[in-house]
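Aim 2 progress update. The chain analyzed this quarter is reproduced below.
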Amino acid sequence: MASSGEARRRERVVEVSSVEITAFCHATEECSRVESSIRNLLPEDTRPKLELAVREERGYYGNPIVILSLVVRDPLLASSIVKYVASRLEDSEKRLLRITSRLRFDPREKRFVIRFSKQSLYMSKLQLVDSDDVVKLTIHLKNVKSYRDLEEFLARSRLIS
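Predicted C-alpha cells:
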C-alpha cells in the first residue's frame, strides 16, 4: 500500500495540457516557408491533419505581418508533439534547455516556452534561439507545484539531459 505522500506525489504528476506554436511572417518572407518551419515541429503523421490559423496584422510602421499559429488542446496529441520535439533535439540543445529552464517557465501561467530558429526549422533542424525571428513553442502544463516538478517533467519528457 502506498503512503499518503506517495499517493499525493502520483496525483500531481506534471502533464502537458496543450501546446501552442506561433510564428510571424513578415512582408519580406514567404509564408509557406514559415508554415513549413512550424510543421517541422510536428510528428510527420499529424502534419496534414492540423490546420494553422492565419491572422493578418499591421506592424508599428504599418507593415503587413501575418501571424501563423497552431493550438493543440488534445492532451494526448500535445504530449506526442512534445515527445517528438524532444526526440529531435541535440544533446547540446537539451543541456541549454536545462540551464535556462527557469527563465523559460512562467509559474503563474504554468507554461514553458521554447524558441526555435525559423530558418533552421525550415531545414528540419531544431536550433534554440532567443532572438526575434523564431517559431515559439509554448507547452502548457498542469499539476506543476514547484520548480522541482518542472525539472522532473522535463527530464521524464527527455527535453533536458
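The chain has one domain: 14-156. The chain is about 35% helix and 30% strand. These observations will guide the mutagenesis experiments scheduled for the next reporting period.
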